[in-house]
Design goal:
Elements lengths: L2 H16 L27 H7 L2 H19 L1 H14 L7 H15 L4 H6 L4 H16 L4 H7 L7 H14 L4 H8 L5 H17 L10 H6 L3 H8 L7 H7 L1 H7 L4 H8 L5 H18 L4 H9 L5 H15 L16 H10 L1
Helix pairs in contact: 1-11, 1-14, 1-17, 1-19, 2-3, 3-4, 3-5, 4-5, 5-7, 7-9, 9-10, 9-11, 10-11, 13-15, 14-17, 16-17, 17-18, 17-19, 18-19
Length: 350
């Protein structure tokens, strides 16, 4: 098996986990590096923001509400409330991961930097954002990151935790992608290194978008310029290239919201088959991420994707499972798609 085939095989193996952490539209304000202080005053109900159609306000009001719950009743109660609100307000799906990250930041501070204690009190709601936030906060301040990145997730060594390690590596290295990849190489297995790589490129591409991650100069530049992001992925070494290509479409979609056909055309210019196929998976997953209640959007994009159709459908399936908290298989998305032929194509590849 040649290098390209190996890379494609790895990309297929990790595509479900890649979709679990998403960068969203540039609709919420950029936060400070320090998590917000817990709020104890009454806050507006998120439904008010949803009715107003203001995603930034929805982010702010929901974050305030769940942070107040965290301060009053603990991490588990805050995450349970966040999950409840997602069921009530579908628009929260696009920003809930970012909110969960911030709950993780606050949990580390509340636990006096005891990350393991904070992780044990959490859940995987919103694609594991809480765990990612805990780990990135703890490792971002580490003075011995090579040692601590191997300890913080042990003994369970879950993929979600190592995704957080990738974020933390970027914090600790000042957004140095090469050094962060070297740190991810230290993970106990290649699959965990790949999960770590997810965090690197989510951090790189979503730093000043609504994923609410602290920006570095390089990320600020790339995350506003799709062609620069695409050119950058061409330079990434083969074992981390799938991570880069999967998240790269978020930059295009941040600049051109909901232009999925345009994003797919953008992917076709990746310059390699690996890049084209994994980029298409990223686009497919985002159609579900941003529009879980209207799968006809993704269906139309994938049906028109030509040679990238299978990858697009795989991306849809991967995030469909994440959207349902892993309680349904990726293939379940197929039965919800319009058209007998597209459903059959989906069942063949997802």
């Amino acid at each position: 098996m040649g290098p390209l085939a190996r890379a494609l095989a790895l990309a297929i193996a990790v595509v479900v986990s890649l979709a679990s952490c998403s960068a969203s539209d540039n609709v919420a304000p950029t936060p400070s590096a320090t998590p917000p202080a817990p709020m104890v005053m009454p806050v507006p109900m998120p439904s008010e923001a949803a009715e107003a159609g203001d995603a930034a306000t929805l982010f702010d009001t929901t974050r305030a509400e769940v942070t107040a719950e965290q301060s009053a009743h603990g991490n588990g109660a805050a995450l349970a409330l966040l999950e409840q609100r997602i069921g009530e307000i579908p628009a929260l799906e696009g920003v809930c991961h970012a909110i969960a990250h911030e709950l993780g930041h606050a949990a580390v501070m509340k636990a006096d930097a005891n990350a393991r204690t904070a992780i044990a009190e959490g859940s995987e709601v919103c694609g594991g954002g809480y765990t990612h936030g805990v780990v990135e906060m703890a490792l971002g301040d580490s003075k011995h990151i090579e040692r601590d990145l191997l300890r913080i997730c042990a003994p369970a060594n879950t993929g979600s935790c190592f995704h957080g390690v990738g974020h933390g590596a970027m914090f600790a290295t000042g957004m140095d992608v090469d050094e962060s990849m070297r740190l991810c190489d230290l993970a106990p297995s290649r699959m965990l290194s790949a999960r770590c790589g997810e965090g690197i490129f989510m951090q790189l591409f979503s730093s000043d978008l609504s994923a609410q991650h602290v920006a570095g100069e390089q990320a600020t530049d790339i995350s506003h310029h799709p062609n620069q992001a695409r050119a950058y992925c061409r330079t990434i070494r083969t074992d981390y290239a799938p991570n880069c290509w999967f998240y790269a479409p978020t930059v295009y979609l941040a600049e051109s919201p909901d232009d999925y056909p345009g994003a797919m055309a953008w992917c076709r210019e990746a310059g390699s088959e690996l890049g084209r196929q994994v980029c298409a998976r990223g686009v497919g997953s985002r159609t579900v991420k941003y529009h879980p209640d209207d799968l006809t959007i993704g269906a139309g994009v994938c049906a028109a994707a030509g040679a990238l159709k299978d990858s697009c459908l795989q991306g849809m399936g991967s995030y469909w499972s994440v959207h349902h908290g892993g309680e349904v298989p990726s293939s379940d998305v197929c039965r919800h798609l319009p058209g007998k032929r597209l459903r059959a194509d989906c069942r063949r590849v997802v």
